[in-house]
Fold this sequence. Notes:
Oligomer: single chain
Order of helices and strands: HEHEEEEEEEEH
Radius of gyration: 18 Å
Number of domains: 1
Helix content: 25-40%
Distance between the termini: 35 Å
Strand content: 25-35%
Structural class: alpha+beta
Amino acid sequence: xxxxxxxxxxxxxxxxxxxxxxxxxxxxxxxxxxxxxxxxxxxxxxxxxxxxxxxxxxxxxxxxxxxxxxxxxxxxxxxxxxxxxxxxxxxxxxxxxxxxxxxxxxxxxxxxxxxxxxxxxxxxxxxxxxxxxxxxxxxxxxxxxxxxxxxxxxxxxxxxxx
Length: 162
């Protein structure tokens, strides 16, 4: 897996990206959520409140818009999404580090189309993009779990030594 800084430097406007879903919300859309990035990643200069969460200064973030899943499987084994209007900040470390995600052709037009502000325009991803995103989200979650276990074991060992 590439470093966080290298991944952050590769992010750009209009890029389709996946973010790991919180365990408590995986029943809504699955292991990942999709976003369309609004620009390049940057480091927060000060603590910033987004919704009800505070993101500490120094974190790498990127502005994005969420895509909401409309249909898990429609014509041609595609998943359909709508682009939500609200802009948000995404913590780069929460993203699935998977380059090359693309929209698929669907009833709404060709792949790689320009995003428009139409409210109910549907965007589609194919089975390959869905499978790659899901597998990468699982891998990323497992790596995080291993690190948490290591930190927990180290913390217990430190307490015992005192």
